[in-house]
Write a structure and sequence with these properties.
By secondary structure, the protein is α/β, with parallel strands linked by helices. It is built from 18 helices and twelve strands. A hairpin with a 5-residue loop joins strand 8 and strand 9. A five-stranded mixed beta sheet has the order 1-12-11-7-10, with helices on both faces. Strands 3-2-4-5-6 form a five-stranded parallel beta sheet, sandwiched between helices. A two-stranded antiparallel sheet has the order 8-9.
Length: 467
């Protein structure tokens, strides 16, 4: 079996979809735009603006994470990751892909002495209290992740869990915490130095949503038993493919180009539909990657464009029974990307029974994996017959190497798409504006004007409540 992920884009083309697809001539004519986007990408990379691209070939991150994970191995029952957005979604996606869905329910022997992993990526107080009630402070390692250290949600989590650790461990609380942050500056780096905390670096040129292949993701994944060396080897294998200037041999560039062309044809929504429960959290990670990178008000010439495809997640076969009706007969504004696993790591044979009831007996002797992949093929066909564009990433088998390939492919495709859309895929000015209002409402010094602005805005809506 081929060990590399393949992109099947047949169901995006006019010979399958008619006028709703992309013609071969149109794809080739867009080659000039693809070349310009590639030149832009490599110019940005040379200027140190695409540092994520060289992460798989940066052994110091791997070595630092393996060394620290070895130091803590067997010393803790639980690992709590405090982070939000890019500091959490990638770790959850890879952990869910490579470890059993029941990982936290297994006993320590089944986990090979590894700690349970809790990724607390929100500040909902009910969830925070519920998780903490399951843990013992002295047997819990906390990995606090924030590049700037100024993220309000993560800072609040830190203050809360620090107090919890101090109640049980006293002055030794610092032995139960690892901080992953900027190597040189920021609030958390100051706290690391003051409290003498163990720490790992977030490379200064790597943004949160591109950071899972840095210590942001590598350390907690190593603690949970993921083979991060093979993960990075898979990413590096894909990296070499994405350096190929031939778009027909570069799945990242080809995926970016086809999605860009579909956007021009009115497909403004990109649905990623996983036909694997273990890869479903990967669609959550992709949502942030695609949305935060490509949703921009202005382009690189500072012109207002308000562009960007909207990512939506779906799970097959579950969402065939909840979303597919809309995708097949609703507005023609969607392109579907399937994640398909060709060989499942384990499978179950459906028992034979009721031979005289044809409507159920036909399933006997088949496997659940066969059923799920038949559902995926049938859905792709139904969409295509109705002129709805769809493509598939064919994953030979879920492993650290193939997951590393997938992560790097999607990261690079996103960056290439930024070049095609003519926007900066590495910033997130819209998110920053919301953060500033939060600071004001929570009383942070220097943001008083933001609080006043928010209160004035809300007061203007006071008469529009339904009671």
């Amino acid at each position: 079996m081929n060990s590399r992920i393949r992109l099947d884009y047949n169901n995006l083309m006019t010979d399958r979809l008619g006028a709703y697809g992309i013609s071969q001539a149109g794809l080739e004519a867009a080659g000039k735009a693809a070349v310009q986007a590639s030149q832009w990408f490599h110019a940005r990379r040379a200027a140190g603006k695409m540092d994520f691209f060289d992460l798989p070939d940066t052994p110091e991150h791997l070595n630092s994470c393996l060394k620290l994970a070895a130091k803590y191995k067997g010393k803790f029952d639980d690992l709590v990751v405090l982070g939000i957005g890019g500091s959490a979604l990638g770790t959850t996606a890879i952990h869910s892909a490579l470890n059993p869905s029941t990982y936290n329910l297994q006993d320590k022997k089944a986990r090979r002495g590894r700690p349970r992993l809790w990724v607390l990526d929100n500040v909902d107080p009910e969830k925070l209290k519920a998780v903490l009630a399951l843990l013992k402070a002295k047997r819990t390692l906390v990995n606090l992740i924030s590049k700037s250290g100024a993220t309000a949600e993560t800072s609040a989590q830190f203050l809360w869990i620090r107090q919890w650790l101090m109640k049980d461990a006293g002055k030794n609380w610092s032995k139960n915490m690892v901080v992953t942050t900027d190597p040189a500056g920021g609030i958390l780096r100051q706290i690391v130095d003051r409290e003498k905390l163990s720490s790992l670096d977030v490379p200064s040129g790597v943004g949160g949503r591109f950071s899972v292949l840095t210590p942001v993701g590598l350390f907690p994944l190593a603690m949970a038993g993921v083979d991060i060396k093979s993960l990075l080897e898979g990413a590096n294998q894909m990296r070499k493919m994405t350096l190929n200037e031939n778009p027909w041999k570069n799945p990242a560039r080809l995926y970016a180009l086809t999605q860009f062309l579909l956007y021009q044809k009115g497909c403004r929504i990109n649905v990623m539909m996983s036909y694997s429960d273990s890869l479903y959290p990967m669609t959550d990670w992709f949502r942030q990657l695609w949305a935060e990178s490509l949703g921009k008000r202005v382009n690189n010439q500072n012109q207002t464009v308000e562009t960007g495809p909207t990512p939506v997640k779906a799970l097959g076969a579950t969402d065939q029974h909840s979303q597919l009706q809309l995708y097949i007969e609703g507005p023609r504004d969607k392109a579907i990307t399937f994640l398909m696993v060709e060989k499942f790591r384990s499978d179950i044979t459906i028992p034979r029974a009721y031979p005289k009831i044809a409507d159920i007996s036909y399933l006997g002797g088949k496997s659940f994996g066969q059923l799920l992949n038949s559902e995926a093929r049938a859905t792709a066909l139904a969409l295509s017959k109705n002129g709805r564009p769809n493509c598939s990433f064919l994953i030979p088998e879920i492993s650290p190497r193939t997951v590393g390939q997938l992560v790097f492919l999607l990261e690079t495709a996103t960056a290439y798409a930024g070049g095609l859309f003519g926007i900066n895929p590495m910033d997130q000015p819209g998110v920053e504006e919301g953060k500033r209002y939060t600071y004001g409402l929570m009383g942070r010094a220097g943001f008083e004007n933001r609080k006043a602005e928010a209160e004035k805005f809300e007061a203007g809506n006071s008469s529009r409540y339904v009671v």
